[in-house]
Fold these 2 entries.
Entry 1:
Amino acid sequence: MNRRKTKFPILVLILFKTILPVFAQEQPNYLCGKVDPFWGCDGGNVFVGACSPFGMVRLGPDCPFPTPTSGYQPGKPIIGFSHTHLSGTGGEGRYGNILVSPMVGNPDWKKMASESKNNEKASPGFYSVDLIRNSGVVSAELTANQNIGRHRYKFQKNGATEPYLASILVDLSHTLSRNPKASFKGTKFTASADGSFSGSASFGGGWGGENPYTIFFQGQANIKSSTLSYKLDTLKMPVPKGSKAKPTLKFDTTGFALTGKVENGESIEVTVSISYKNQDETLPAFEKNLNLSFETIQKSAEMAWEDRLSVFSIENDPIEKTQMFFSAVYHTMIMPTDVAGNHPEDQFGEAHFWDLDAFWDTFRTLMPLHNLVYPAQQRRIFHSLVRIGEGKKWLPDAWIAGDFARAKGGCNAEVILSEAVQKGILVGADVNKAWKVCIDNAMNQTDRPELYGRNAEYLKNGFCSSKIKNCTSTSLEYAFNDYSLSLFADKIGKIAESNLLKTRSQKVINLWHPDRKFFWVKDSLNKWVPDFTPGFMKSGHGNGPYFYEGNVWLNQLSAVHLVDSIISLTGGKPAFSARLDSIFSGNHFDIGVEPGFILPYGYMWIGEREKTKNIVHKLLAEKFVIGNKGLPGMDDSGALSSWLVWGYLGIYPLAGTDEYWLIPPYLEKAEINLPGGKKYSVSGKGNALYKNGKIFPGYKIKHSDLISGGTFEWK
């Protein structure tokens, strides 16, 4: 493709703003061929399009509104392909920006959705589908690298023997917000009949609150002899009752279309570069990639994925296990979004990440997984996190589109940074910077507890009362945050601070109901709230008033530093074991929500490793399956996928510490290629663990021992 200079640019300034999918396996010897990007897309909300690891461009299909936050549903038609997406998240939608929709014939903005779709395929860095409309069929192929999206559209019109019209529609107002008419703020762009276009579009709203952002773009479509048309719809926004203001105009669908003649089987390619910083930042990547072939860009993305996936190797396992394992590993690397050099506050090209959504989801299993196998990448994330804390004076629990998003409970960025120091990932001057932002976050009363920091009640009493939404789960998480931060203090010799944090972390035991033998709720007068029920997900308790995505059963081990006390208060080891038994036998467990992740491993504290192994293996066998419905819940940025990865390997991280539990792996044999050239190999199903031929004492291992590698066999 050759980029032509725009001779007559047109400036548009807007002041207001099926068939089941099949994953590609053309190269079965590559690990990319073992990944099914569609795995878990139905219910797990995973992104199914083309991207590179942690890439800023996630180019994929969007279905008609309403959709999950990924923009995609297997059984729905497709309206086009946008360049920004989240993966695995719930709640309000966000992104879905700069949507491109190809069609046979003149542009029809009212019929962007395909009547049906066929031949849907995906592999890491690649997505393809046939869009079927009455006017003809468009075979779409997509690939992407860090901040470039490449589209290739092949057109077919039944019975056509002469060239015919085809159109490329570019919707600059498109968004995945559940309230799309409120999220588009406006656009400024130039477009030309030679296929070139550039500009910016502004958005706000969706997951994380308003969090306004502007996306800058540079594009080129190699459509021949095209004509240019515009879609500039407006609508009148209502005026609140009692207001004397006049109705205001707001733009609905806003964009442009390029229309030219094609022959049957002819392809049109579109290249789009994006940045969140300014127009200039779109140009280097655009110019570097414009003349590269589709296959070259695709191969580059595939090799980036191959490099990340090759950290793991598997032997002697059936294809179903292998596929789910590598699909899960793949899902853990779609988010967060690496926006270094491309975000508004960047001045020096330093590491920066968006869409840390949210640490409440990822601190338990995903962050520890990446700490083990991708420490260099993690170090960049931690640098970004510390700078956010320094600049904003608070650490986020979720960081979306360059601003705070709603905290789900606790201050889990502290857990992540504490773990990084204990495991030697953050060292030197970075440790002192991390300590400063963590201790400030832990000791100062927040003005926005729904976004960051600890609230006044916890700082005073060591727990939150019933007047605070999600009071009990938040109290348990604050307490664990304190404990994890005390380990950070121990590591760097802050003895007084460590003692203070440890003491405060114990106070949440005041929420243990002595008769009910569960963590429960107190009111502001320190009296028990009377409506106790051990029932699973009592109405209203899924997200408040007392627990976030949990209840008295699922939050039993949310403060894992108190497990010994909980065992004693439950009535001792036999009673604690029976309590755990009742969770799994009495329909009181849901692996699809994060507080439950650790519960199968609760038996490890009382030496009943065999029970943990049996339950973990049963969950892996029954709750995770091949196909679109493969995940037992929303993937939450790869959190649920990472739980599977650990279970397959027979390791479980104790988040916020430098320790792991060990059980027999679900795989026959697996190997982890660790940083520094070391290898961790594990196999076997027996009861005794051997390392390098010698009996390994106990079932817990330190991070320093794990990364030293070795051959672990269960005999």
Note: Confidence is low (pLDDT under 50) at residues 1-20, 24-28.
Entry 2:
Amino acid sequence: MDYGLWTMDYGLWTMDYGLWTMDYGLWTINQNSVTFEKSSPKHSNLFLNFVSQKKIFTMQYDVVVIGSGPGGYVGAIRCAQLGLKTAVVEKYKTYGGTCLNVGCIPSKALLDSSEHYHNAAHTFTTHGINLKDLKVDMKQMIARKDDVVLQNTAGITYLFKKNKIDAFEGVGSFVDKNTILVTKADGTTETLNAKNVIIATGSKPTALPFLPIDKKRIITSTEALNIKEVPKSMVVIGGGVIGLELGSVYARLGTKVSVVEFMPSIISTMDAGLGKELQRVLKKTLGMEFYMGHKVTGATTKGKTVTVTADNPKGEAIKLEADYCIVAVGRTAYSEGLGLDKIGITVEERGKKIPVNEHLETSVPGVYAIGDVIKGAMLAHKAEDEGIYVAETIAGQKPHINYNLIPGVVYTWPEVASVGYTEEQLKEQGVKYKTGSFPFKASGRAKASMDTDGFIKVLADEATDEVLGVHMIGPRAADMIAEAVVAMEFRASAEDIARICHAHPTYTEALKEAALAATANRAIHI
């Protein structure tokens, strides 16, 4: 057979050169020959080592996924479930991408640990719990965080094996649209052939060109997960999700945290009322300072002190000194090193994102991109949905994603969550709407847990009563927002939510009360 294909238990292979024949255990390669019985592992391994060294074979797949973050690994699993021969290429030693290794999961582990400490220090006595000699063991806190990460990444390894997904460690790049070169850390390479390719390479922290990150005192969110002591002071550049979550971790442990934000409000992409309330609570409960409308101009390090310079709204220069400075001004799509130029794909100049159509397919047929590397919010659950969407599209199904109903969450305390349109967006679009709001200070469950800050707001169409947006700040908002998403997926009215019986006492009763307030202002408990 000349440049032919053959199958065996471990997959489909393509020959790069030469002729070979097989007769129940007899293999012949032109210019070289290896003979063994099929039942002989020793000779079988000898043959496989031979062909590997000679690079005779190229693995054939229905789908090759580049990147194993939430979008990549979920997409790969769904492909495998649909019967597609699937491989994943990951350049790091562990799976899970930014989210599991240095993002969502480790930050939540530290947020939970620091919240326990903060409650022990500030609210336990009210509950009748008295403690002596309370202190922070940062070494143990970091170790627990690392263990949580290990458990999650190991879980993906198990899922790959369960679903018979082949995983390759190395940097994946295009040779052509159907050929992926995997370059390993030691410089050796493997070649994979794919009918379809899914790019899921994620994002990396955005750097400011005038502010060098030394990863020691001027750091990103990655290094902020491994600070070995509780800093006395910290400046956070950026009042978005990442900056506020990490700032909260250290503020709870006793660090004086100053947030410098260019916009006039924190979490500025969410409903304005949420940012205003969150800033008030973080200042009241954690003593965080906010410098809104300030433009950072630089940062320098001298010994163990970082000096951040900025211009205030009047154009006056200010200086802030701290032990650490976290640069949290967003993330940039990671599309370098993919060899996109070899297949005719050009990334967007701003943000380096890969253009895709409504089916998440690039300009090259059979090459898809998902998650942070394409347009839209940089959210793990968005990437997961897109991974499933592309897998089902490749399999010939007709999946669905409603991008307006992908919730956003900030894991501070109180938590912040939002789905659908904000009031600002509805006003800009000229949509007539009505609003209903309910404060947690009127919630029996919130009073019992001493979590009375925040509120839930429901926005509904003035004419049809269809829910257009739900915005909440309060206890367990990250979990409660799912009820709103379900309701809005089925195009529920505010009246529908108001008529649903909610268990008492629960935090979700606040959503029902807000829906009641949006329908003829008939909330019961205010």
Note: The chain has 14 helices and 27 strands.
